[in-house]
Amino acid sequence: MIYNYVGALQRDAPPASVRGEPVEPGLATTDITSQTATMAAQVVQAAKLLDGLIQNLPDVHRTEQEQLEAIASVQERVEAAGEELRAEDNRSEKPGGR
């Protein structure tokens, strides 16, 4: 979003000289001041929304050690489920299995 806004602001900005020379004004088709204020407000709103979403992520307030322990626990559960599925698959392939 911010890249689109910067591009629009660059595209719509009035001509300006880098050397301080007088520049003839271009055709103003947009109100750059209003557009800038609107885009700035939208960027701030999006940033606040993103911050809120990040704060609501589960486990975001855990320490690194607690996060590592949670990951290890999930990995153990995944491995156990995988073993259970492999065992079930082996039973179903054998004659007389399910």
UniProtKB/TrEMBL annotation:
Query: Which protein family is it in?
Result: Belongs to the Mediator complex subunit 21 family.
**Gene Ontology MF terms:** transcription coregulator activity
GO cellular component labels: mediator complex
Q: What is this protein called?
A: Mediator of RNA polymerase II transcription subunit 21
Keywords assigned by UniProt, alphabetized: Activator, Nucleus, Transcription, Transcription regulation
- What is the annotated localization of this protein? Nucleus
GTP-binding as a keyword of this entry, yes or no, is no
Give one GO biological process term. Answer: regulation of transcription by RNA polymerase II
What does it do?
Answer: Component of the Mediator complex, a coactivator involved in the regulated transcription of nearly all RNA polymerase II-dependent genes. Mediator functions as a bridge to convey information from gene-specific regulatory proteins to the basal RNA polymerase II transcription machinery. Mediator is recruited to promoters by direct interactions with regulatory proteins and serves as a scaffold for the assembly of a functional preinitiation complex with RNA polymerase II and the general transcription factors.
Q: What is the native source organism of this protein?
A: Elliptochloris bilobata
Q: Where is this region: Disordered?
A: 79-98
Please give the superkingdom of this protein's source.
Eukaryota
Give the record's subunit note.
Component of the Mediator complex.
List the InterPro entries hit by this protein, alphabetically.
Answer: Med7/Med21-like, Mediator_Med21
Q: Quick one: where is this thing mainly located?
A: nucleus
